[in-house]
Amino acid sequence: QVQLVESGGGLVQVGGSLRLSCSTSGSIFSFNRMAWYRQAPGKERELVGVMPRTGSRIYADSVKDRFTISRDNFKNTMYLQMDSLKPEDTAVYYCNGVQEDVAGQVKDHWGKGTLVTVSS
Predict the structure, then answer these.
(1) Is 110 left (phi over 0), alpha (psi -120 to 50) or beta?
(2) 3-state class of 28 per DSSP?
(3) What are the backbone angles phi and psi of residue 86, rounded to the nearest 5°?
(4) Which distant-in-sequence residues (6+ apart) come within 8 Å of 99 by Cβ?
(5) Would you state the torsion angle of the CA atoms of residues 1, 21, 73, 53, taken in this order, to the nearest 10 degrees?
(6) What is the mean pLDDT of residues 53-57?
(7) How many whole angstroms separate alpha carbon 68 and alpha carbon 64?
(8) Residue 1 has pLDDT above 90, yes or no
(9) CA angle 53-54-56, nearest 5°?
(10) 94 within 8 A of 110, measured Cβ to Cβ
(11) What is the mean pLDDT of residues 11-28?
(12) Is the CB of residue 37 less than 8 Å from the CB of residue 49?
């Protein structure tokens, strides 16, 4: 059973930084892509950024140039570095991992989320 566990959320002031972590129970290379999503109160879940197994990261316009996705292959962990935080970044942040087997079957895995609150 694949598990994704987020950590690193908390309360931060406007303009501050936080780094979220997503640790995986297996090899991070087992995922075709990993991503960060977020869901603000009263809003739908939205994509923050995508990290494919190979290739360039893609970010939502709202976080571009402020957020950076990276990974540590040895620790099987993905990170989300968040800088210049704004009140509108307040949300529960979720880690997502997609696996596709040789038959083309896709499995979508989610963490339980970590809350980020940006105070003004």
Answers:
(1) beta
(2) helix
(3) -120, 160
(4) 2, 30, 31, 32, 106, 107, 109
(5) 80
(6) 92
(7) 8
(8) no
(9) 110
(10) yes
(11) 96
(12) no
**Residue of 33 and 101 predicted with greater confidence:** 33
Confidence of residue 101 (pLDDT cuts 50, 70, 90): confident
Residues in the chain: 120
**Adjacency order of strands within the sheet including 18-24:** 4-7, 18-24, 77-82, 67-72
pLDDT band at 26 (very low <50, low <70, confident <90, very high): confident
Give the separation between CA 42 and CA 23, rounded to whole angstroms: 27
Q: Per-residue pLDDT for 45 more than 90? A: yes
- Please tell me the distance from the alpha carbon of residue 15 to that of residue 39, in angstroms, as a whole number: 20
Determine phi and psi for 36, rounding to 5 degrees: -115, 135
User: Helix-strand-coil percent breakdown of the chain, rounded to 5?
Assistant: 5, 55, 40
Distance CA 89, CA 10 (A): 12
CB 95 within 8 A of CB 112: no
Average pLDDT, the chain: 96
Structure-block tokens of residue 91:
């949300």
Residue spans of alpha helices (H) in the chain = none
